[in-house]
Amino acid sequence: MRTNFGKIGVILATAGSAVGLGNVWRFPTMAGQDGGSAFIIIYLLFTLMLGVPGMIVEFIVGRHGQSNAFRSYASSSRYKWWGVVGAMGVLSSSMILGFYSVVAGWCIYYLYASLLGHALGDAGYCADMFSRLTTDAVTPAVLSVVFVFLTYFIVSRGVKKGIEKASNFLMPLLFLLLVILVVASCMLPGAVRGVEFLLKPDFSKVTSRVCLDAMGQAFFSLSLGTACLCTYASYFSRQTNLGKSALQIAGIDVLIAILSGLIIFPAAFSVGVSPDSGPSLIFITLPNVFQQAFSSLPVVGYVISIIFYALLSLAALTSTISMHEIGTLFFAEEMNMSRSKAAVFITILCSVFGVLCSWSLGAHPEISLFGKSLFDCFDFVTGQILLPLGGFLTCLLVGWFVPMDIVRSEFTNDGTVMNSVFPIFLWTVRITAPICILFIFLNQFGLI
Q1: Which of 120, 369, 406, 440 has the highest count of CB atoms within 10 angstroms of its CB?
Q2: Entry pTM
């Protein structure tokens, strides 16, 4: 009999798969640049219009299939070739785990540096430290492997004792660390300007590009197209309300993104620093911000730095667990492996990916594909091609090819919940969501 998540495990484990490093550096920056709360309002609308329906369609495929992503997609309609979409998810999740583990390794390094007090240096020191970290051949590669093996330790223990148990501990801890950091940041002198920058609406900045940014954030922030939602849904019981669960998970994801903004912007504005995006914000700018903001209380700055990089490490771990599980379940069921052997196989594969991606950034720049470092190539192929394509095809599958009695039965839990909104859901999945994803895809390539 297949193991199922408990009621709390459904929410925390699946929310953990969505919550990641992008919530910390991508969302706050986009919100700040694109009109503050005006962007947030648009983002919330697209979360409801695209994100929640996109989650539900993957839930439907996964719970109905009760198997790994490849088999669930293949068995969802009479056309078995739909299994290719699930296989794409397995491939993309392994590639993502490979390069994501590199960034997660940086988080571990900065947590270690924070414990030693080294992360609170000046901007030049932090820039040099980050440069050494990305170009060194040994340290970042080893840390990447360490992080993959840490993920393996959790996944190999199974669904209940591993994934669910870890999620039930890590997600509340992550939220607690967030709240501590928000309180500390918002109490700084001049922090109110950062709060206003994030939450005060500036509708003059709202353009078609901002709407496309919000749409893309709603899609990628919820891990749509990776098959992790489908894989986790295979552990949902028949009593799990798919629509309600999707709304709760999306709500947690949005809340954590906004709380992240309430950490970064007040702290940055308190010392007159304009926040940047991407890794430079996390690994170069913020250590300097922490040092300046808490210069009168260096012990507090030291503790805040530790908590922040512990938060990043936990956020990375909740995401890598789901990425690892997709491949583990696939190889266990399709290759007739034991779960432990399948987990070892994925661990070794993704460790190799991680080492090569790490080396490609500086130590061995010749490790490249299509003129990009392997790290950037994996990021490009998954983020700009495989994920949007997977989300687009899943909407088409559930909207047009899965028998309607199956879709209705899964969505309404055999007619017991949400019957009245099923026509709206079906219209969204058939028409609105595919169009939105197509716009995201074209926008990434600068075609609109």
Answers
A1: 440
A2: 0.94
